Amino acid sequence: MENLVNRVKQILVSPKTEWQVIDNENDSHVKVFMGYVLPLALIPAIASLIGYWVIGTHGLHLFSWGLRQAIVQFILMVGGVYITAFVINALAPTFQAQGNPNKAFSLVAYAYTPAMVAGIFYIIPLLSPLVSLVSLYSLYLLYIGLQPLMKQPAEKTPVYFVASLVAMVVAFVVLSIVLGIVLLSSAAMTGFRY
User: Cα separation of 112 and 76, whole Å?
Assistant: First the structure.
């Protein structure tokens, strides 16, 4: 737990030096997922459950709605990390980067840190727009982490970043649409009304 807290702190406050540390670790994507992504992805999930069930919004305090929001948040975080990492690694040869699935996963997992930590704002549904605002810092982390982890020429970094950014946005949009369809279908089958 101490390592997790320290990594979160370091990636948020001194990311340039922390990317070098991460590059030297050569951790597998399984290790990063189990020790970092999984615990942090639970923050927005649990906060959503509490926020929509206990605190509620517009006078509604519904466990089923909170549970659905928790599932959505968890899948968006975990799915977003995996899909974006896959795309960044697949794009590596295009930008003369070193394709490495573990490095791509670490890059995305640690870049998503602000979004996952800011998920605590879901505990009060009215503060949920702050998650998007804080998540913008993830873009900066991704930008400065690309070169140390993927090893592309420095002049390719801006274009590689834009392509990676598009991958992140597309991953979230696709996951959101799929989850929306699945959750609306399950809500319709159970007779739940929003």
Answer: 11
Residue 60: strand pairing partners:
57
**What pLDDT digit, counting tens, does each position of 20-59 carry?**
999 999 899 999 999 999 999 999 999 999 988 887 665 5
Written as one letter, the residue type at 94 is: T
Q: Which residue has the tokens 């649409």?
A: 177
Q: pTM for this structure?
A: 0.88
Question: Exposed (0-12), middle (13-18) or buried (19+): which is 190, by Cβ within 10 Å?
Answer: exposed
Domain boundaries, the chain: 2-190
Residue 26 neighbours by CB distance under 10 Å: 11
Compute the distance between CA of residue 145 and CA of residue 143 in angstroms, rounded to an integer: 6
Indicate the helix (H) or strand (E) that contains 85.
Answer: helix 63-91
Number of alpha carbons in the 13 Å side-chain half-sphere of residue 101: 8
The answer to whether 185 and 179 are in contact (CB under 8 A) is no
Question: Counting every residue, how long is the chain?
Answer: 194
From residue 38, give the alpha-carbon distance in Å to each of 29, 77, 107, 155: 12, 9, 15, 34
CA distances from 148 to 2, 16, 24, 106, 183 (A): 25, 9, 10, 11, 39
